[in-house]
Amino acid sequence: MTEKTFSEGVDELQRMVGAGVLAGEVSVNQVYARYQDGVGGAHGPRGKPSFAFDHPRGGQAMFLSGPIRYRRDEVIQRWANAVLRGRLVHETIDILHSFKDDVSLNAPREFDILRNSTALKLSDDGAPVFDLPALIPRLSDAELKVIRKSVSPAGHLRSTMRGRRNK
Fold it and tell me: Is residue 4 situated within a structural domain?
């Protein structure tokens, strides 16, 4: 049994990693997701900074960008271990799912729209590998208007259902 040179080891590692770009995407596709998360100092309605928003039903700012920042070292270690086991794509899919779970736990709870609007995608050198659509697709302006109208000034959901009572 002969030992590998450093150069041979690097070549083997390159073969294990593969060529091209492995690109993962975690997105929350709602018109107001960016300012609720606080990405890039985004401001919400009337210029109010997102970090100053009240979330009386739970949730927080940085529900997506925070975990990606704070879990960076963990993710890099998971990728390093996965490369050595030949499971980089599978591990990346698991990591994407864990970020989706973070959004579900941390997104503002208003109507549970944001926490159910997370989509996942993974491509390998531009070719789609994995695609998980959001449970709630992006709402139209008309749909958002209906939701806003159904909320009382105190923030409670109003019933908009009407019908005849039996006599």
Answer: no
Q: What Rg value do the Cα atoms of the chain yield, rounded? A: 22
Place of tokens 């900074």: 49
pLDDT tens, position by position, 2-54 = 788 988 888 887 777 777 889 999 988 887 776 666 655 555 555 555 566 66
**b (16+ CB within 10 A) / e for 4-42:** eeeeeeeeeeeeeeeeeeeebebebebebbbbbbbeeeb
Please give the pLDDT value at position 160.
45
CA separation for the pair 84, 91 (Å, rounded): 12
Look at residue 82 and tell me if it is in a domain: yes
- The answer to whether residue 50 sits within a structural domain is yes
pLDDT at 153 over 80: no
This prediction has a pTM of: 0.74
Q: Which domain holds residue 77?
A: 21-149
Say which residue the tokens 């990606």 belong to. Answer: 68
Domain-embedded: residue 159 = no
Contact 107, 63 (CB under 8 A): yes
Q: Whose structure tokens read 């729209």? A: 113
